[in-house]
Automatic annotation (TrEMBL):
Pfam families: DUF3326. This is DUF3326 domain-containing protein.
Amino acid sequence: MQRPYTAILIVPTGVGAAIGGYAGDAIPVARLLAQVCDRLITHPNVLNGASLYWNIPNALYVEGYGLDKFAAGCWGLRPVRNNKIGLLLDQAIEPDLKLRHLQAADAARATLGLTITDHVITDAPLNVELRTAPSGASWGTIGNPDSLLRGAETLINKTGAEAIAVVARFPDDIDEEAAQNYRQGKGVDPIAGAEAVISHLLVRNFQIPCAHSPAFAPEPPHPDLSPRSAAEELGYTFLPSVLVGLSRAPQFILEKGSIQSQPNDIWAEQVDAIIMPATACGSSALLSLSNKQCQIITVEENKTQIQVPPQALNIKFTQVKSYLEAVGLIVAHKAGISQLTVDS
């Protein structure tokens, strides 16, 4: 019997990807790839659609820092049936907005049957600030990272949280031109880079699944809105998709042999393929896997704001025009067919 075919789908955060740079608009790609893989490993930027989500049974929801550690062979992944999710709220969130998020968590318990602990509020405002790099990519800073870490530690030690959903209050004074471009499906997500900073910090320090949901003051509806960003305009919170993703996010195994292995444990050497946008190949995960027996597939149609092609990194890759073509390549690879040719 052949071992399961495992693929990784990455769409880097905050780089204006044409597919996956908006509110869950890469979910159709993940659904498609999951049909031809036995296991699809991807990350919150791909699967988070604010109030919208899709259950993909064979998809593994892995935060970006943890995905990099997995690809490097430092950490393994252990699939779970259910995680106990701790909810960490920024002290800076106003009472009415906090209530909306607590009601979303209550709804997830009652409607979806998720296991969510009592929430914890940080002991100081997190003071998130947004930044934009010269390339156009978004990033950000946290003014009080120690408060974030203390809150997470409380959730883990006092409530038994196995995964953490963070809700930080984000600035309302986002650059209006950037925000309008994003709403029209033309620009970079101005908050995505800062979100990654928050989740990376917690996963690095506590080695458990984590994802972030930003809190904003409600705005009036925008008539000129791209369908790709519309998911973020449906309600008062982006929390539902985060809670769904974390509910079955795999736990991290920090070292081979450190605990008794299980048949479903996954390690980097079991990855058969990784799929990336063709201009965004600087990912730590991709660079690590380029040294292993892993097929690297780059997708031309998924344009980004950065220019890091695989040729510049001197790695072996196969470029395709579209994700549909990537599916065909994976099917051939899975079947053990090296190439298809037509005699002239």
